[in-house]
């Protein structure tokens, strides 16, 4: 095998100072570098306009656990859709931006979830604001079955309700239309369906005491607005000033003299007693991510992480902080650092800060997450009009493009996939716009010179970080086809992803759970594979498995990294 390698031997003593230089061992193997790619893949037209490929059904002998090493050693697990895309369009054209879909009444059946997986869904989100545990359990198990039977690696994200103020259900109606000037009653009484006409339940007992006549009431982040005109005991009468559609359990905020009233909100816990029950449910069902709504500080994230660590082996659930409140913006860096990822939850964010500030906040959160090496999801209203219509507005396409151009790790559909009429079409728009903008960005060589500060906390981590920074640079300069990273913890894969290299990153991990979680990160193509500390053996095995499947070819140029050896090799696939 022609390769050129560089190994960094990690010092045994972790206290060793950062300034001492590591020991370098150049490879004695002959070098044959192919500097220019000649593979047909580079000339294949981009897949943006093509329909999604049909997944190849894989026999997964090792995805379920409890299978002998000997059986597992011979196989490799890769996402069926990615495999088909790679074969059809080559390395360069794989999508780097990951896609999250909220599962709801429009998408909860097995065939509907499968259609989303085929369409490129990387993460399925369930929102605990809605539905019962039985409903969520069915969805989660369907996703898992799909992964096991059809070779997908769709991760599951559970999103907590949080204890902010919201409306109740609409007495069984999916939505209710409000007209300009109509008077509606918001009541803290425990009203049972059928609700009196133009009456809405509010979940927070202090609501009728807290609001004042003249306050402005924003429902669902301002999609519908009311003015408080009268208080009658538990009932608050409001006149509609901006008409629209009320959806069940929509969030409510109220504003006075142009500012958000949030004294009481600040007293409410971030994780309510109901949220803890939902979290126990999520742990029991083995979700991959828990997204925490209305995070105010890093403490709550640390608290949840230690709760999870005490309850699950190897802490296999990642915690995502939703940035959607003024408090989360005040403590942004420490919240992001405490979390395993963040979400720019623009829906509620837009109700807490003036709308015109949302784009710059999005930009800041995306940047900080990348700098601190945490995956970031841009969420809410990306394709809102597609809830009702089969094509997006031009403005929506521009919004999606901007998030892709900012190199966010992932984009999220909410109502578009949960209760819209065109979930698959909305996903297709996200996929094709992502592919097109990513390609444009590469062709124009517009890599932003984003400064990536050190994130390492030990010398060994520092070496990994330097290796990844160098490998990404080498990958771009040499025009390699892919970077391979063998990772036990996922750390080196995410450090590589942080560099946003031009080529895709094949991340090999021994764990199915880590493989699913890596599926949220920009540019990572996660594989499950049993491997050892011997890179030569790992590479030979990977090359032969991937060649057998037609995913790589002889002559492809790859850079291979390992976090066990902390090594870099540049290799032509034999
Ligand atoms: N599990 C569910 N059951 C019923 N309806 C749901 C469910 N999940 C989502 N929805 C519907 O999809 C809409 C959009 O989803 P999402 O943005 O996650 O929630 P919200 O609007 O409450 O923030 C919700 O308002 C709700 O009408
Ligand atoms: C994603 C969001 O949270 P949720 O849909 O749970 O309100 C949001 O507010 O943008
Ligand atoms: K939520
Ligand atoms: Mg929200």
TrEMBL record:
Pathway: Carbohydrate degradation; glycolysis; pyruvate from D-glyceraldehyde 3-phosphate: step 5/5. It is an enzyme of class 2 (transferase). One of its GO terms (molecular function) is potassium ion binding. Signal peptide: none annotated. Its main location: plastid. Residues 95-426 form the Pyruvate kinase barrel domain. This is Pyruvate kinase. It comes from Dendrobium nobile.
